[in-house]
Amino acid sequence: MSGLARALVQAGRISHQQAETVTKQSASEKIPFIDALLESRAIDARTLASFCSETFGYPMLDLSAFSVSHLPDKIIDPKLMQKQRVIALGKRGNKVAVAISDPTNTQILDQIKFQTELTVEPVVVEHTLLLQQLEKLGQSEKQNLEELMGDDLDIDFNEEDMSGQVDPAASDIDDAPVVKFLQKILLDAINMGASDLHFEPFEKFYRIRFRIDGVLRDIAQPPLAIKEKLASRIKVISKLDISEKRVPQDGRMKLVVSKNRAIDFRVSTLPTLFGEKIVMRILDATQAQMGIESLGYDPDQKEMLLEAIQRPYGMVLVTGPTGSGKTVSLYTCLNILNKPGINISTAEDPAEINLPGVNQVNVNDRAGLTFAVALKAFLRQDPDIIMVGEIRDLETADIAIKAAQTGHMVFSTLHTNDAPSTLTRLMNMGVAPFNIASSVIMITAQRLARRLCTCKQAAAIPDETLIEAGFKEEELDGTWVPYKAVGCERCSGSGYKGRVGIYQIMPISEDIERIILAHGTALEIEEQARNDGVKTLREAGLVKVKQGLTSLEEVLNCTNQ
After folding, report:
1. pTM for the full model?
2. DSSP characters for 366-405?
3. What does the DSSP 8-state code read for residue 239?
4. Distance of alpha carbon 505 from its chain centroid, rounded?
């Protein structure tokens, strides 16, 4: 018999027989004693609340006078309040006032004390009013999410091979509003052309941002209370350990948008002061199948690139900062070369775009599968074309160069500022100059500039400014005008929609080979490249300005003179 039942019997409010009957009903129906008691009508809710207040010496409060919107939040976990049927009324110093209908249930009070690390002061309220307020609180939280969600979405997560692997704690995150909200956010990101999604918890708020056309934009600020559920949901569908919140984790997930389209996401978690920050990169395989025409190469650049990649052996290097589109460029080249008679193998960290017909390997440093180890294995697999995600060290560079010298076509990337400095970077790594000269056939440096939206307008830029930016006087002949960003609904007011590539294509000529063999500097290589007719990144960007594809401001921001 519960403490409340004994107190009622001792005070003569109910008989011993009534108490036993209600206790048996409570046990058989698996409901709390107080619910069974009120159902039996042995006592009404108001009389019971008055009795508890007088008997146990706790103040009594009329909850009907309180509005849900005025109740404090973030003192007690909303999930705990709903489960234990209590409401936080307010906090003063190290004390928290808690509305409760059965003050004899000390287990609940101890649990709140443990979770909040505060002294709990019970306030007795009518049980029926408490349940009504809890229902309003639940609806309020759900409504906040539903306002952000909009309509239901016809998308699904590919959760194959997850049966039997889902953590038991995952049941806590099968929360329909959170699941739908996440689906809505992911679909919005795809429709808006985002490349990355950032889920960021802070002390007072939770923020979701999209990287669109290279710039982060605030998208939503959902209730702070859902940060754990949202993080757990993302981790479950990405096959990550939801119980591990102390170290970074990496995973993948797939979103099935339609029968013919599924989009992969690369997921990275990072423990921060106020929870786990999650960044998801969208990996859309359709980008690699758009064709070389859509990447923004000038006709002469496209011709040089196609001529280089069609050679039977040699090395083509793509260079640029993170997020400059190197992977898409390489995969576009691989897609051109991906034919039934060709064996292509790639080693990446990780493989970002799934390309049917290409043997893709994820490097795993912990397991000992480094770029160098993968490359050695490729050479025993009868390859025609090899792609190395990135040349990071001398061992990888040496094996890649030897592969290029022994009849294989090798593609790879480096992080350098422009094409000429890539050659000196290889020399600084320790690669012998004669090996570089005999293997590298082309280097392309690239940047991504935001493409002007159709709302663009002609800009009145003084000739002096244009000349200072890099235009020649003879180019300012009045046959073209520069444009500026304006902003409309289509581009969400930014003035830009999509991106266009800016490329420096540098074939390795015999003159450049001589400079490499003589241990020449990047400046000497750059000077010779200019003599060979190679445009700098700035010059290539100014061509896009003349074509009206982007603004002068954007080109100045993403290129160096």
Report:
1. 0.65
2. TTTB-HHHHHHHHHTS--SEEEES---SHHHHHHHHHHHH
3. T
4. 32
